[in-house]
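Researcher: Please generate the 3D structure of the following complex. Treat every line as part of one assembly.
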Amino acid sequence: MRTDDTGNDGMNGNFLHPSDSEIQKWMSNAFNMAKEALECGEVPVGCLLVYNNTVLGKGRNEVNETKNATRHAEMVALDQVLDWCSDRGMDPKVVCKSTVLYVTVEPCITCAAALRLLHVPLVVYGCKNERFGGCGSVLDVASGDLPHTGTSFKCVPGHRAQEAVDMLKTFYKQENPNVTKPKVRKEGIDPAGGSRTTQTEAAPLEDDRKMATSD
Amino acid sequence: MEPESKKRKGMEYDPDSWQVLPVLSDEMSDDVEFLDAFAAPITDKRQTSRLVKDLSAVHPISDLQHIRRVRPCKDKSSPHPLEVIVCLVSDVPHIKGRPASLGDLLSSDEFNLEGLGEPFPVRIPARAPLTRPQFEQASLHWPTSFHEDKRITLGLKGQLFTSRQKTKIHEYMTLAVEAAKSGREEGMDAVGGVIVDPKSGRIVAVGHDLTRDHPLHHAVMVCIDLVAWAQGGGVYGYEKHPACTYAAMDHQVQTGASGSVENAQPYICTGYELYVTREPCVMCAMALVHSRIGRVFYGVPSPDGALGTKFKIHCQKGLNHHFDVYQGVRRRSCEELVQLT
Ligand SMILES: [Zn+2]
Ligand SMILES: [Zn+2]
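Model: Done. Output below.
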């Protein structure tokens, strides 16, 4: 694999960890995206990829329209970064090594692996993704020992987590008003082939088929 | 599924010899764990049911439902035909090593020792075995119940698939190998995949690695997007890659594109099979979960593979979709591809 050649060489020396105020600023941007998505009846997940104080990628979930279950917001945003690089003839690896992902929900296992393969060093996220999370909730792909799968990355979890959970709960309530009775399992929301979930108890559960198409 | 018929066995219908083996969960493939216990001979057979009842009251093993408390004596020349579990070693923490006598395990004031001989250490399986090899390993030490899944037993012997099925599997993997070679000619990694609808036998998508164009376009990600194209969706263009193809779905199934749900509508890769030359990485393996793949066949393991090597995403606890995985299909040809990369 072409992206593997460096293995887990950790963070790149000239990468500057964002300050608290930067984190607040970009996360508030991501939360605004999630709110807009919610208002449009879409999965309320906001996500930004920021390089040197510039937003290179801004994604929203595109699973439904593409019929491709991997078109999560992060994947869409990563493609924008790759396009940005190719437009400028820049090496995506060099750019990604100084890029931070801000996202309202913990990335799933697929997206976490994609972030590794592209050498993104840091992910700041809101709530946990109990059913698909790749930064520790289901598997720890973020820091796992995978020398042939890009570079491990660090996480700053829990930023405005309750708000992110609440938005998802609201979304699934409107989306599927028939299934809001809490069921036996306590896993939270399962948004379709893959997005997100929360760990709060009262989170409405969906029937799998419905979710499959709703995300 | 039927086992490979005896008549065919050993017949070389395939010069490229390979065996399809299931990739089972750790629980199924790990060695059996044992607990240390003490057993004693039943010297008076008439006391058996009383002893079992009394022992169960003093030293219950109710959390070990698979264990039979009494076993026939292994040594046929033994004067006593039965042996019984007295207690687990963990029940008698004050005993260090081998107990001197029954009295160390059971208080003779409270327990009627009549009919019990001197205790000896045994090892009993900690959990019910899930596979025949585990059952056989466990049974060497103490009898245990076993609910056999015949498919798993046949699978582990490489006999789950009939010759005809193996020929099909061989055919599909051959397409994947060819796709990998086409990709290699374009300067890509030599990895190829094929997605098939097993109900109709229709080949839905054929793809190969495209990481020279896009670092995330592993063969599996390409195949998943090609299936999306086949269903009226899709993200990327493949015009420059003639070996990456898809077959559009028949009209009947193509309806129902919007979010409105028809239960008859297959969701993405539901029920489909993937044939891929090497074990998928964690990104691709999870993408297959998201896509609800039916089952996966691969040729050779890969160092960070997520369907057996580093993870077993297909049977990962906590995920909402599980599927069967088999490996070893056309192993030699797939190994040759790895050498190319
Ligand atoms: Zn994801
Ligand atoms: Zn992959």
